[in-house]
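[Q] Does anyone have a clean structure-token version of this?
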Amino acid sequence: MTRPRIALFLGILCISIFPVIVKMNLTSGLISAFYRMAIATAIIVPVAVCKNKMRLENPAILRPVLLCGLLFACDIAVWNVSIQKSSATQATLLTNLSPIWVGIFSFAFLGYRPRNSFWLGTAIALTGMIVFVGVDTIMGLKLDLAFFLALLSGLLYAIYILVSKRVLEKIGVIPFMTYSMITSTIFLFAVNVFFGESFVGFSEKAWLSLFVQGIVCQLIAWLLISYATQKMRPTRVSLSLLSQAIFATVLAALFVNEKITSIQMIGSGIILIGIATTFYEKKSKQIK
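[A] Here you go.
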């Protein structure tokens, strides 16, 4: 397994606890999104300054970097709210439609035609996701605000992956993460002020959850995923992110005593087969 794949695996593992923490409702979804970014930003900025990573050789690259920050901030804010207004299962299912959007947008706007193995892998993985969450859950989906927020989250996620892939071809991971997270933090601060959210008065457990989100789910996870995005195809990265549903279920069983059903195990196996399918290539071709 190559370094980018290892980084992607570890990054997905780090973000998989995020839905479990958000669903605990220790803080509002918007405040959770803000502190996730603010805590990570407070750590990475001094590191970037000390390592002289803030200087950009081409200042024009800053605009798409800032766009990435806005896209990511909108994504996690919308997803957090959708989780708290419905269920982590529904939000995760709809958000994880992002591989389809990545494939469509890649073909429509970037002139990149995803391989047949990607579409086959996506079909298999999404079938596994349906099995994983259960047909009853699919049939019970309501076209309410939470539904459309989760769907919007998937769209934002897909656009972020594609834009960040292009940007990371021209800039290093640390300056990219630093400037984009500063943008996300400022934007989410403004959103919370607009909606009248309180920034203080949380329990010790809530503060602990916020620091876990900021350090593990944001800083560590997205440094790793950004590195993988820089080195790998966006279609592969987006589809691999489906596995976070599996990891989240395992973590929920470990930390909040949720049971793993046999149906979930079967669905997990199908999802993993789908992900593996998109990584398949003929031996004559180099595998990244």
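[Q] Thanks! Anything notable?
[A] The chain has one domain: 3-278.
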